[in-house]
Specification:
It comes from Bradyrhizobium archetypum. This is Beta-lactamase family protein. InterPro entries: Beta-lactam-related (IPR001466), Beta-lactam/transpept-like (IPR012338), Diverse_Enzym_Activities (IPR050789). This protein is of the alpha+beta class. It has two domains: about 260 residues, Beta-lactamase, CATH 3.40.710.10; about 110 residues, Up-down Bundle (Methane Monooxygenase Hydroxylase, Chain G, domain 1), CATH 1.20.58. About 30% of the residues lie in helices and about 15% in strands. It contains eleven helices and 15 strands. The strands form five sheets. It has a seven-stranded antiparallel β-sheet, sandwiched between helices. The protein has a two-stranded antiparallel sheet with strand order 3-7. The protein has a two-stranded antiparallel sheet with strand order 4-5. Helix 3 packs across helix 7, helix 3 packs across helix 8 and helix 6 packs across helix 7. The longest helix has 17 residues. The protein starts with a helix and ends with a helix.
């Protein structure tokens, strides 16, 4: 690192306080096995399957391992750093879901309230049924609720999770634009057909973007302002926001120009550009230590450093499976042996899944390779950050295997 780069990093050094650290063996982890974990990811870097990554393992309130591996940006020689800044994409969702539940705790609404109570356009939705290549619109059997949005049973979808006729409408729209507001996005999505009846299926979707708009309507503040005031500032997550400043240009983690597995061009949003839409489903940028503070709060049952963010029983509700037996789940995003709560996937079987874990473990990930999980039974959490597509599921499962192998 040259003097100019070092000075730039010093100027823009994170103000986020570090969590306490400890030697791995003092918190029930194996140094030898954690080193094997880092070595495995170094091999992936050497193979050219990922440019670089950070991996953090914490247990019993202390960080036992925090490694920065490979390059921060494959186009430069800068190494990955502990304070590199990442697009966390769908790891935004748990933060926004906690924000919604804080408003529930404040008494502004209940989970069974219809979304139309806050966004009137949702009162007139229809379900799109494919029939001989055409889309028949039928009435909803009931209105979409706040709980549906939290557990992805709303009937909303994403344009990239399939190519059905409803998803094609998403693809042809401006829903992915960062130049529309949250209000415009919510109105636009309310005008599109649902992919199924509310409550009938689990479909990963833009539901959390709509939750972000509900936060704005109820609080009277922008989503970013609300999250900062109620979650990010109290947790001292000083570098989590919907964009970062030009002063941090030398700290941005970037992907390969092309997917190393299929050759497709990789194009992620510009972290230095302030968007009009503050996407509750995937718009935040953050650092490993920032997100670690959020994870430690979750592992602590809703509190960190004396600041209670969410009630213990409310968090317990969020980290429980909310999918009834009749709810259809046919998505590769939902691992076997798991259900979905209010913002997180939740492990509900010891077996079935192709990786180790504990009953009650909850987690989620981002489309550029970021990932976290919370294991209350083991007093354990991990934060993994990378940028790029590649084999994300493979990386996540590899990480789980290696982390649990290090737990004594």
């Amino acid at each position: 690192m040259n003097a100019q780069t070092a000075a730039a990093r010093q100027t823009s050094a994170p103000r986020t306080p570090a969590l306490p650290d400890a030697k791995p063996e003092t918190i029930g982890l194996s140094t030898v096995r954690l080193q094997r974990m880092s070595d495995a990811f170094k091999r992936e870097v050497d193979r050219g399957t990922l440019p670089g990554a950070t991996v953090m393992v914490a247990r019993r309130g202390q960080i036992g391992w925090f490694d920065a591996i490979g390059r921060q940006n494959p186009a430069t020689s800068a190494p990955m750093a502990h304070d590199s800044i990442f697009r966390i994409f769908s790891m935004t969702k748990p933060i926004v879901s906690v924000g919604i539940m804080m408003l529930v705790e404040d008494g502004h609404f209940i989970l069974g309230d219809p979304v139309a109570k806050f966004i009137p356009e949702f009162a007139d939705q229809k379900v799109g049924i494919e029939n001989n290549g055409k889309l028949d619109l039928v009435p909803v059997m009931r209105l979409v609720t706040v709980q549906d949005l939290l557990r992805h049973t709303s009937g909303l979808t994403y344009d990239h999770t399939g190519n059905g006729l409803v998803q094609q409408l998403y693809q042809q729209s401006r829903l992915r634009s960062r130049k529309i507001t949250n209000a415009e996005h919510a109105t636009m999505i309310a005008g599109m057909p649902l992919i199924c009846q509310p409550g009938a299926e689990w479909n990963y979707s833009r539901s959390t973007d709509v939750l972000g708009r509900i936060i704005e309507v109820v609080s009277g503040k922008s989503l970013g302002a609300f999250l900062t005031e109620r979650i990010l500032a109290p947790l001292q997550m000083a570098e989590t926001a919907f964009h970062t400043s030009e002063a941090n240009a030398g700290r941005l983690a970037e992907p390969f120009a092309h997917d190393p597995w299929n050759g497709d061009k990789v194009q992620l949003f510009n972290m230095l550009e302030k968007p009009a839409m503050e996407s509750g489903g995937g718009g935040l940028v953050s650092t490993s230590m920032d997100y670690a503070r959020f994870c430690q709060m979750l592992l602590n049952g809703g509190t960190l450093d004396g600041n209670r963010i969410i009630g213990r029983k409310t968090l317990e509700l969020m980290a429980s499976d909310h999918l009834a037996p009749h709810v259809k789940v046919s998505s590769p995003l939902m691992p076997p042996g798991h259900g979905f709560g209010l913002g997180f996937a939740v492990r509900n079987q010891r077996g079935i899944a192709p990786f180790p874990g504990s009953l009650g473990q909850f987690f989620w990930s981002g489309m550029a390779g970021t990932f976290f999980f919370i294991d209350p039974a083991e007093e354990l959490f991990i934060v993994f950050m990378m940028q790029g597509p590649g084999q994300r599921e493979y990386i996540r499962n590899l990480l789980r295997n290696l982390v649990y192998a290090a737990v004594e």
